């Protein structure tokens, strides 16, 4: 966090040198900067996606939009690029074989994962098997 604060101060000095009136808005800028750079308080995307697919339990799998809507309803502290991150993690989970993409671009849990996914409560991390 200290690094982010230093970076913010450098950016502010540069902006103030270009436009001195920004000093008046420093608190508002600082508040927005803090919101953009903070660490979200939610489980890893893989866990959220698996929980969404498991909870939605849709015939033929869940669409990316349905998964996104479920995650947005469960967690209010999602990063700004949520849609891009969701796409990335869906692709990554398909590549790893943890979820399956159907021909209709819907996602289901793979057989091994669906047997081991527990109903995760908001903020609970998955149990790792040894």
From TrEMBL:
Residues of the signal peptide: none
- What positions does the domain H15 occupy? 41-111
Compartments in which it is found: Nucleus
Give UniProt keywords alphabetically: DNA-binding, Nucleus
**Gene Ontology CC entries for this record:** nucleolus; nucleosome
Q: Does the keyword Plastid apply?
A: no
A GO biological process this protein is involved in?
nucleosome assembly
Task: Name the domain of life this protein comes from.
Answer: Eukaryota
- One Pfam family recorded for the sequence: Linker_histone
InterPro entries cross-referenced by the UniProt entry? Histone_H1/H5_H15, WH-like_DNA-bd_sf, WH_DNA-bd_sf
Matching PROSITE patterns, A to Z?
Answer: H15 (PS51504)
Q: Does the keyword DNA-binding apply?
A: yes
Predominant subcellular localization, coarse grouping: nucleus
One GO molecular function term of this record is: double-stranded DNA binding
What is the designated name of this protein? Answer: H15 domain-containing protein
